[in-house]
Design a protein that fits this description.
771 residues, alpha/beta, Rossmann fold, 5 domains, eight-stranded mixed β-sheet, 30 helices, globular, binds adenosine-5'-triphosphate, binds magnesium ion
Length: 771
């Protein structure tokens, strides 16, 4: 038996060793599902399966990267690089680019983000002269998104009387028309939205048997993590691709299904056994992540759900401290408590910021936490929310870049054709849009052919339009021989974007210029990183693909030591030694929107289960007595979920002063709305909680934190590197040279990096420090 298989228990080893056939692993949180997938892939490769024949679908790109890194450590080669691994969206975007022409799309199709989609829908609602208070664009978008994820195409929609009736009943009889127009406009713009990446993959596999055959034959082994949160569209793709070999392994936990609101279908997991012949079902029961207190508390919660598969989760880990519950007056106080508690834990247990996570139900709750952390000088990072790439000035630059690759991209064109102002007005744009529709051409093409069309646009404006088109074309020519950074830098100068912001002169304008500079820095970094890789060039199209599919979790390079702040939805699959779950209040968590039906409430409860099971060593729950909601200060009640936890796992506290907490004595402080029998006095602990011996992981981090000056720094010529040398890279961290290939200018090194996994770098460009 290979040595690494000893890192699994018997129950985990079974699905790893079953090489062929369909199998499902259903197990609770922290029981090693993701670990099983990782080891299974390593095992397959050791058995001689070509990594090109393995497809692994994960929930975030970050998860994929971590998995690849781990696999590379086990199989000890750069072969891991050849695995098809990533999110559904990133893997199938790649395949769609290869096959785009079959569906009538350009291979450099644009990926519209949610903002782009919203903007298209707003324009349609306006053009159709519909009441925007009835046809709320976000609702319309969500509805269209759910149709797409259920594979209800426009045609299918119009054949389905029930759907039309339902939309009519909700006072939106023209939803189908909007759907049709939306699809048309995206297609004409050579753009796919996020849902299209799945819908079009399905279309591709359904309509073209040879394409289906090609990918069925390629993906001999398919693995899916977090299977409980796949939607119908994703389900069908997996089903189609695995049909030939039926070597499919899915892992999931019905108790962690939290994306029903986005169309995830728990039945995918429940029906798996019906979909394939001879399905092997595996269960894992031992949790390796959390203390006994946390595991037991989580079990006691999920037990309240009626719809669930019966599962056992236990742990051999220590009891650990009880779950601390604290009540604060306001969200400001809540923030201060969390920040002080983090500070205190850090001091007491010698921890890093990265050992802590603050989880909340809604993004808006982050502000109070941020304020408090800032005051205490605790570095933090927010995941989710408006990302850098969604800021106006950044989207402006990106729109120019998108247009260069895909001149049909209508959202990009509309955004920048008159920004900075070139005297191209709304009337002109309307005329162009009408002509584009009439001639079935993109606006860009209409401008190119203006001479031959009778457009009723005056000569002066025509010249302005021509200048714009020529400018974009000149960028496109430059792009053929330049990298993403060179193109982007030229664009910011030549378009007048930066000058425009300079003219503005306000602090906001200056901040925007700084953001654009930051973007350029980011592009330069990206290009340099890509150029170091033997199989990439740092082109504009590589950069835009990276941006389009990056989620906020993915930008985490993990090289900065920060407290993590994120919504519970984003935290799925992750783990942290210390977890604070804040805002444990009725109407907030469970959310006011989710209390109408049992199934909604049960989804909220699963969300709480996910939150609690992220914690390894200790969990904290906080709630406030009053909170600003919709601009009003309202009384808040403690969440029913606190009461649902078996109270033997809880420790109820009230703050005394900044760093010391004393156990609750006066139960009246909770008011009349709480079952007081639950709030019995918890005995004060005579001694502080036992100091935890730092785990290997923490030790590793602590070692890494040694100030740089203590390490010998000797910069040598990287071209002289040889096998076994220790090096450090700005982005990938420390690493060891595995292999040197080529000579002179083409000399490459294969390096195993602590953070970046195995990379093949061109030494001519590689920014390495030899240690
Ligand atoms: P989730 O449901 O939250 O996604 P999971 O079932 O995927 O959890 P993993 O993330 O794979 O669980 O494992 C949880 C933690 O336990 C990880 O840190 C993992 O490395 C560790 N672990 C799992 N199995 C073992 C084992 N046999 N020996 C040592 N550590 C293990
Ligand atoms: Mg997992």
């Amino acid at each position: 038996m290979e040595a690494y298989l000893a890192g699994l228990n018997d129950a985990q080893r079974a699905p790893v060793l079953q090489k062929d056939g369909p199998m499902i692993v259903i197990a609770g949180a922290g029981s090693g599902k993701t670990r099983v997938l990782t080891f299974r892939i390593a095992y397959l490769m050791n058995q001689g399966v070509d990594p090109f024949n393995i497809l692994a679908l994960t929930f975030t790109n970050k998860a994929a990267r971590e998995m690849k890194h781990r696999i590379a450590q086990i199989v000890g080669s750069s072969e891991a690089k050849n695995l098809w691994m990533g999110t559904f969206h990133s893997v199938f975007a790649k395949i769609l680019r290869f096959e785009a022409d079959k569906l009538g799309y350009p291979s450099n199709f644009t990926i519209y983000d949610t903002q782009d989609s919203h903007s298209v829908i707003r324009a349609i609602i306006k053009d159709m002269r519909l009441d925007k208070d009835v046809y709320k664009y976000k609702q319309v978008y969500n509805r269209i998104s759910s149709y797409k994820n259920s594979l209800i195409t426009v045609k299918a929609y119009f054949q389905n009387g029930e759907l039309q009736e339902a939309d009519a009943m909700s006072k939106k009889p023209r939803l189908g028309e909007i759907y049709k127009e939306y699809v048309d406009r995206c297609f004409k713009a050579g753009a796919m939205d996020f849902d299209d990446l799945l819908l079009k993959t399905n279309e591709l596999l359904n309509r073209f048997p040879d394409v289906l055959h090609k990918y069925q034959s390629r993906f001999k082994y398919i693995l899916v993590d977090e299977y409980q949160d796949t939607n119908h569209s994703q389900y069908l793709i997996v089903r189609a691709l695995s049909d030939k070999f039926q070597n499919i392994c899915v892992v999931g936990d019905d108790a962690q299904s939290i994306y029903a609101f986005r169309g995830a279908n728990i039945n995918n997991i429940l029906n798996f056994q019906k979909d394939y012949d001879d399905v092997q079902m595996y269960r894992l029961e031992q949790n390796y992540r959390s203390t006994k207190n946390i595991v037991s508390a989580a079990n006691s919660i999920i037990d309240k759900n009626k719809t669930k598969l019966d599962k056992v989760v236990w742990t051999a880990n220590d009891d650990g401290p009880k779950i601390v519950v604290n009540r604060l007056l306001t969200d400001g106080e809540e923030g201060r408590y969390v920040a002080s508690s983090i500070f205190e834990n850090k001091m007491q247990h010698q921890l890093n910021n990265g050992d802590f996570a603050i989880l909340y139900r809604t993004n808006a709750q982050s502000r109070a936490m941020e304020d408090a952390l800032r005051k205490k000088d605790i570095p933090y990072r927010i995941y989710g929310g408006l990302s850098f790439y969604q800021r106006k000035e950044i989207k402006d630059v990106l729109s120019y870049l998108r247009l260069i690759l895909n001149p049909k991209d209508e959202e990009a064109l509309k955004r920048v054709i008159n920004y900075p102002s070139r005297g191209i007005g709304m009337t002109t744009m309307d005329r162009l849009a009408i002509a584009a529709k009439e001639h079935n051409r993109s606006i860009f093409e209409v401008i190119e052919n203006m001479q031959n069309l009778n457009l009723n646009i005056n000569r002066g404006t025509q010249t302005k339009l021509e200048n714009f088109v020529n400018m974009i074309k000149s960028f496109a020519i430059m792009n053929e021989t330049s990298d993403a950074f060179q193109v982007a830098e030229t664009v910011t100068k030549k378009t007048g974007l930066v000058q425009e912001l300079k003219k503005d002169g306000t602090p906001e304008g200056i901040a925007r210029i700084e953001n654009i500079e930051e973007l350029l820095n980011g592009i330069r970094d990206f290009v340099e990183g890509q150029r170091e890789l033997a199989d990439a060039t740092g082109s504009l199209s590589e950069f835009l693909e990276d941006v389009a599919l990056a989620t906020d979790l993915d930008n985490d390079t993990g090289d900065e030591d920060r407290v993590a702040l994120m919504t519970i939805h984003l935290a799925k699959g992750l783990e942290f030694p210390y977890v604070y779950i804040v805002g444990m209040e009725e109407d907030l968590f469970p959310s006011a929107m989710s209390m109408n039906t049992r199934s909604e409430l049960e989804e909220e409860r699963r969300l709480f289960y996910v939150a609690l099971t992220r914690a390894e060593k200790q969990a904290y729950l906080t709630y406030t007595l009053s909170r600003y909601r919709w601009g009003k200060l309202v009384d808040a009640e403690p969440s029913r979920f606190i009461e649902e936890i078996d109270d033997q796992y809880l420790e109820l506290m009230v703050p005394q002063d900044d760093y010391k907490y004393k156990p609750l004595i006066n139960t009246d402080i909770f008011g009349d709305d709480v079952d007081k029998s639950k709030l019995r006095q918890t005995k004060p602990k005579g001694t502080p909680p036992p100091a935890h011996k730092p785990s290997e992981e923490q030790l590793r981090k602590l070692r890494k934190l040694k100030p740089a000056s203590q390490q010998p720094e000797q910069v040598r010529n990287t071209l002289e590197l040889s096998e076994g040398n220790e090096v450090e890279h700005m982005r990938f961290g420390k690493g060891r040279v595995l292999k040197i290939e080529g000579a002179g200018q083409d000399k490459k090194a294969e390096i195993d990096f602590e953070q970046g996994g195995i990379k093949k770098l061109l030494l001519r460009f590689a920014k390495l420090k030899v240690l």
